[in-house]
Amino acid sequence: MDADIRWTHLKPREICELIYAKYQQKTSITTIKKLLRQLGFRRRKAQKNVTMGQVENRNEQFENIARLRQLYQKNGNPIISMDTKKKEYLGNFYRDGHLYTQQVIETNDHDFVSTAEGVIIPHALYDLKYNHGYIHLGTSKDTSQFACDSIRHWWLTAGKHLYPQATSILILCDGGGSNSSHYYIFKEELQKLVNEIGIAIRIAHYPPYCSKYNPIEHRLFPHVTRACQGIVFKSVALVQELISRTKTSKGLTVTVKVFEKVYQTSRKVSESFMAEMPIIFDDYLPKWNYMAKPFLEHTTVI
Question: By residue range, what is the domain housing residue 31?
Answer without folding.
Answer: 10-45
